[in-house]
Amino acid sequence: MYNPKSTIATEFISDSEIRSTMEYARENSGNLALIEDILAKAARAKGLTHREAALLLECNDPEVTGRIYTLANEIKHRFYGNRIVMFAPLYLSNYCVNGCVYCPYHAKNKNIRRKKLTQDEIRAEVMALQDMGHKRLALEAGEHPLKNPIEYILESIETIYSIRHKNGAIRRVNVNIAATTVENYRRLRDAGIGTYILFQETYNKTNYEALHPTGPKSDYAWHTEAMDRAMQGGIDDVGIGVLFGLETYRYDFIGLLMHAEHLEATYGVGPHTISVPRLCPADDVDTADFKNAVPDDIFYKIVAITRIAVPYTGMIISTRESAKNRERLLELGISQISGGSRTSVGGYVSDEAPEENSAQFDISDHRSLDEVVGWLLDLGHIPSFCTACYREGRTGDRFMSLLKSGQISNCCLPNALLTLKEYIRDYASPATREKGEAMIKRLLADVPNERVRDRAADYLSKIENGERDFRF
Ligand code: SAM
After folding, report:
1. Ligand 1 atom at minimal distance to the Cα of residue 96
2. In sequence order, what are the beta bridge partners of 315?
3. Is 245 in the pocket of ligand 1 (CB under 6 A)?
4. Which ligand 1 atom sits closest to the C-alpha of 280?
5. What is the CA radius of gyration of the chain?
6. What is the biggest distance separating any 2 CA atoms in the chain, rounded to whole angstroms?
7. Alpha helices in 5-80 (DSSP H)
8. Distances, alpha carbon 450 to alpha carbons 389, 445, 458, in Å
């Protein structure tokens, strides 16, 4: 039985509700009057239900698609302006006891080199990331209770936050580790993590069980209910996502939105972020073995409709996507991207020889962070290294209500400009610096509140003179 407020996986992600939604979408895909109503509702930026979103996804009318794209871009601007938050993944360990058939970390894979960073190696990786200009990381690790216990993750977080190298600092550590207990989520919260991220991979229980034949992750309910436990453990910023390509996109798109609805209905806070990874080639993983690859044009629609269905959520795209695709997706609602990423364990300090491969998947965007920042500036986006909200306690429902009310723009824009200024003073190439300075000059005038604007101008000149870490 479908119940968005239940905390039982098969009730808030109801297979029969997903299937009847798919049928409803198919039956109504030509009902332009209904679609018109849904587009009008979307334009009010209050979000859409999974049924309404599924119907838009099913509609093949090019005019409707064009309007969805325009709306997605408008809504992204309404909530996030032209800011794009920057981050990088940091792989701590690829030891893993699970059997996920799409992931090269699976326990039976003997080809990849297994590595686990020591605290000294983490320090070296973090300094390399700081030297690129990163302030925000996403920690990644395989699931291995003995090699990567929670104590190792907690110690690593403490190490990361403690490092001050030149002007560098990691100010927000998001964590993408396997589903765990309420008690462990509490410990992660106490360690000061930003968002707890966990991809569902697929919401289809039968397929999920086939794709995860062995290991703790094979327990569908344990994995699907992880965000509930995280919330119960006091983490109020959680990030969800599916790995597109494992299951039919229709099924997982609906499941993803139902999960967002469940979090909102049960805890009063929807997902802080939604990620949209697509399956990539990797060691021991041939994407040809997976029959549900999502073509680019459908993927664009998925991103755009997710944006209008969940207007307030941060939407993340990684270097799994090519520069060309990322450029397109930035116009369709994406608000966070990674740059200069390495998916191997220890990859920021040294490039691996091919026979030493420890990477999780092949990336498509190989540009440096400076190149990504310069490219964003060329496209008119503001690369933002801001981490202020969570450091000011603006998380969970406090963050969401500020965002929904539009009040947040008085701090986000100046914060983005301040952190961009830090980046261009400390790390940018001359060409990127020039573009960044021009953007800061141009956009400072757009800060709505005069007092905030004056203070921002003062902070900018202090950064110019060597001071760091101002925020609103
Ligand atoms: N080990 C953690 C867990 O159990 O959920 C998560 C960390 S894993 C390093 C991060 C994510 O990478 C996975 O959740 C999965 O969605 C994604 N991933 C795994 N194999 C992939 C592949 N071949 N292509 C693209 N993404 C992949």
Report:
1. 1
2. 274
3. no
4. 24
5. 21
6. 63
7. 9-12, 15-28, 32-43, 50-58, 62-80
8. 21, 9, 12
pLDDT digits (tens, 9 = 90+) for 287-331: 999 999 999 999 999 999 999 999 999 999 999 999 999 999 999
Q: Given this model, what pLDDT does residue 150 score?
A: 98
Mean pLDDT over 238-245 rounds to 98
pTM of the shown model:
0.97
Mutate to test the pocket of ligand 1, among 199, 208, 222, 338 (most ligand atoms within 8 A of CB): 199
Which of the pair, 356 or 93, is modelled with greater confidence? 93
- pLDDT at position 143: 98
Inter-residue contact 24 to 254 (CB < 8 Å) = no
- Separation of alpha carbons 346 and 92, rounded Å: 8
**Structure-token pair, residue 407:** 């009040």
CA-to-CA distance for 366 and 344, rounded, in angstroms?
13
Nearest residue (CA) to ligand 1, atom 11: 199
434 C-alpha to ligand 1 centroid (Å): 37
Using CA atoms of 252, 256, 259, 261 in order, give the dihedral in degrees to the nearest 10.
-120
Q: Is the CB of 226 under 6 A from ligand 1?
A: no
